[in-house]
Amino acid sequence: MVPQTSLLMRSIVLFIGFIALSLFPASEAALKKYQFDVVLKNVSRLCHAKPIVTVNGKFPGPTIYVTEGDSVIINVTNNAQYNMSIHWHGLKQFREWWNGDVEEAVKKGNKLGLPPAMSDAHTINGKPGPLFPYTHTLEVESGQTYLLRVINAALNDELFFTIAGHNMTVVEIDAVYVKPFTTNTLIITPGQTTNVLVTADRSPGRYFIGARAFMDAPIAVDNKTAMAILQYKGVPNTTIPITPKLPARNDTELVTSYNKKLRSLNRANVPLTVDRKLFYTIDWAPPAHYYKIKGVFSTDFPDRPPKVFNYTGVPLTANLRTNVGTRLSRVAFNSTVELVLQDTNLLSVESHPFHLHGYNFFVVGSGVGNFDKTKDLSKFNLVDPPERNTIAVPTGGWTAIRFRADNPALVSPKGDSPNNNNGFGAPFQGEPLQASSHKPNIGEGFSSHPDPPHITIEGQDLEFANLEAPSRSLVVGLQMRASVAFIG
């Protein structure tokens, strides 16, 4: 039984994503908002009725009262049957740099050979923070413990996430319970979810919640720090929030240490014997399907690179090109699969988020540099590896996963990239379901969800009796053309 004074379990979801923003002056200028409804209205003058265009039912329309330096937002709704245009006499309408013309952006990218500079900023629940006039506020009560559900809904950036002055206890990742551990910083990859317990045990005040990119590759990203506020109940809004200490943007050591702490809550049902071993390299070389080759998949996709080279060497001396064609690899139904994903320095190294549709998998190993099967296999965690549906292949490194191919459906691993158009293609085709007499057991090959766990934090017992067991829902939104499919 939970002591009355210990906690109040509450579930809060924090979305960290991207939004295009308009900068407002940082002065004391006011923000004025108006709503204009354009309608046709019949008026009678000199004994004749005539429909005229009105704004909010008036002609002339409403007066806008502003002071020099104010920012004005006017929402216009056209309720007439004709297209309308509105012009502001004597006022300069500065260009919307965050909403530029698509064709102009494409032309600039083609001219430079690189994507145009990004103007998007990170947000927490859609709000970027105090640098702009929009900040998400999370109100808490002293002495209570809260369950925060954190989702990285960004496209490409791994993110650091921290709360000033407060520790977080990680209890669940990707809807799977883990051995609880306490940290002051989360590392979360696009598409991943992390549930943490946070106790409001500090002096009542306002504390910044910070999220910013983990930049471990020479790729241009928007590096603004998104901020929200954790505010104790009864504390006035005029109180200056305490600022968190965020890790260095390239703190690879912290990320590596954090990932090693992720362990399944119980002994995992990870495949100990492997029927099929696959080794795939990931790079920025243009994928073959952009040549728009017609036809059906061929079934000769190699289990490993046709040519072995120093995948992460600097400088990269290999002269390699992709082959035209779309190929897949056959995987027997209910077979156990080990897939090693190796980042390469083709064009550039980068951390690649990787999501497997239709499956959870066990992350049995990860490292920096080239995968060495003679040394790295002995380091695999085959006892309690974390069970996930989304991972990040380290920059200039590798990740190994294991799973059972018991889902006879078209499922596709995907990653993502800054311009959403680069990646790798390597479909799998499973043998027909009829080819095996085995009847699939739902969840076989994965650790089943136990009863809600009993967790002790700093001498306090936490019970999850009122919480629903985590569902195996997927975070939708990863869009890189890193297409690998398992077909039953």
Please provide a brief summary of the model:
The chain is mostly beta strands and 488 residues long. Helices cover 4% and strands 32% of the residues.
Shape: extended
Radius of gyration: 27 Å
Structural class: mainly beta
Secondary-structure element series = EEEEHEEEEEEEEEEHEEEEEEEEEEEE
The low-confidence runs, each spanning 5 or more residues with pLDDT under 50, are: 1-11, 18-27, 285-297, 417-430, 432-488
- Strand adjacency order, main sheet: 5-1-7-12-9-10
Tell me roughly what share of residues is in helical segments: under 10%
- On the 0 to 100 scale, the average pLDDT is 73
What is the count of DSSP helices, taking H or I runs of 4+ residues? 2
**Approximately how much beta-strand content do the residues carry?**
25-35%
Largest sheet, if any? 6 strands, mixed
Record field, number of beta strands: 26
N→C terminal distance = 47 Å
GO biological process, one term: lignin catabolic process
Protein name: laccase
Catalytic activity: 4 hydroquinone + O2 = 4 benzosemiquinone + 2 H2O
Organism: Acorus calamus (Sweet flag)
Q: Any key phrases for this structure?
A:
26 strands; six-stranded mixed beta sheet; 2 helices; mainly beta; metal-binding; Cu-oxidase_fam; extended; 32% strand; signal; 488 residues; single chain; disordered C terminus; five-stranded mixed beta sheet
Can you tell me about this structure?
Residues 95-234, 300-408 form the Plastocyanin-like domain. It is found in: Secreted, Extracellular space, Apoplast. Residues 413-450 are annotated as: Disordered. This protein is mainly beta and 488 residues long. 4% of the residues lie in helices and 32% in strands. The protein contains two helices and 26 strands. The strands form seven sheets. The chain has a six-stranded mixed β-sheet with strand order 5-1-7-12-9-10, with no helix packed on it. A five-stranded mixed β-sheet has the order 6-14-13-8-11. Strands 15-17-22-19-20 form a five-stranded mixed β-sheet, with no helix packed on it. A hairpin with a 2-residue loop joins strand 25 and strand 26 (460-462). It is extended. The two termini are 47 Å apart.
